[in-house]
Amino acid sequence: MAEGRCRRLADLPSGILQNVASFLVNPSRAIFAAALATSDSPCDTRSAIVGDQWDTLDFGEIEKDLAAKLSDDDIHKILLCTDAVNRVKRLMLTNCTHIKGVGLEPLRGSIIIEQIDLSLVAYHESPVLDAAPPISWVYVLPILDSIISQEGYELKLLEFPKHWHDSSDPIQFLDRYLHMWSNRFELTCLSTGCNEIVNEVELCCKCMNYYCDFCVTDDDERMIAYCDKCEKRYCYECVAIKDCRCCHQSYCSGHCDVSFHECCEGCGKICPDCDTEERRCHRCKDRWCDDCGGEAASNAANARKSGVMSVRIIIVGMASTFQMVIPRLGIVTAVIVTSVFIVTIIGPTAEDVMEFTVSNAGTGMT
Predict the structure, then answer these.
(1) For residue 1, what pLDDT band results from cuts at 50, 70 and 90?
(2) 356: pLDDT confidence band, cut at 50, 70 and 90?
(3) Which of 14, 103, 294, 354 is the most buried (most CB within 10 A)?
(4) Separation of alpha carbons 225 and 210, rounded Å
(5) CB-based burial of residue 49 (10 Å sphere; 0-12 exposed, 13-18 middle, 19+ buried)?
(6) For residue 224, what are the β-bridge partners?
(7) For residue 80, what is the enclosing H or E element?
(8) In Å, how far are 128, 175, 285, 315 from 107, measured between CA atoms?
(9) The whole model's pTM is what?
């Protein structure tokens, strides 16, 4: 091979590598730089690949299978290459289900990071994974402690993996963190004219905007709401949250695989779990919520009762008429009376009775 020919990607001019990296999303750029991070690779080469736009590092921007293969060593190299401790403000370890947490060590003592999402799932996905991931609070909590112990730290939003929620150490850390949070930050609701002080759980996980639980939009929608399926909180500008009129659970509208149905009275939405046969009209298949169900059921019962009473009156009239002609009609009379009696048992609606009465008017049967 001729002398001077490049034998490795790292030996290519930094301008070429920078141009290639410009077509990649941030996590891919970081992985690219980490792959070339050898002891003898030029520092300016890695810097050219990484660039300087690192406010957000979200591994949800790369393929799920690739993120799931990343190890702690990979995460460690990525955070070092990007100088995350001094650059990254929002870190989301989406789909990084193979790490234990020791790879987050380069974040130790960061005073600029504002959000750390360790839930390992993307927006609008259930936090419950098929198998508990190996990420351990034993490795992660000391790193987080080093962050919130810094003077002037900016960590405002922290999300833990679902399987940590029943462990005492993470709960104790959260209590400590929330206490320090309330002393560290004094954020006022962004709604016009509202001076309510918000807390950590009233921040949108997507845009970091914050609203109090009392403020609503002009359309009477809550400005900040919690989804009971993906267990994340969103503001009204990022995701519309709808409440089920039956179970009163809240869900991301148009996301989280939840398709709402309208109550027949137009008062609100009904989620699929509450969309049962008991809440449907047996004729038109309209649905009613719990608030409207009592009135709807009462109306249906009254209509059925009215229909049965009308048919009974018809039967009584028919019986009195047939007493005079029974010897002549014989078996035909029995067939007619039996067929009407079956209709009575089925219990027609008032509309059925009206149709029956009108169709037989003038026949001498009523």
Answers:
(1) very low
(2) very low
(3) 103
(4) 11
(5) buried
(6) 235
(7) helix 72-81
(8) 26, 21, 56, 86
(9) 0.71
